[in-house]
Amino acid sequence: QVQLVESGGGLVQAGASLRLSCSASGRAFNMYAVVGWFRRAPEKERECVAAVSWSGGTANYTDIAKSRFTISRDNARGTVYLQMNSLRPEDTAVYYCAARWQGDGSLSGTSWCDGYWYDWWGQGTQVTVSS
Fold this sequence. Notes:
With 131 residues, the chain is mainly β.
């Protein structure tokens, strides 16, 4: 059984930064796991934020994240990060990491922004940005 655990959320003021972490137990991230970050704001649908290939060599972002967020991973530590800078009140949401172990662990040709493509999800970490 795989468990994903997110951490690093909190309450910050607009313009601040946070770094979210996602770690896995039950299966190693460094064994071809693609990891994505999603978020869900109150009364809104889940949104895709970013994803990273198993090697960390490829990272994809949606418009939400471009120029402000950076996804990275440290496979030696079994952790994937989402560095969020210049946070805005509209970034307030529960942030989830998701993982799928597949193929060569690349993002190419995958549905990396489709939540249903992922096999495992964490419980989420709350990020609240005050104005």
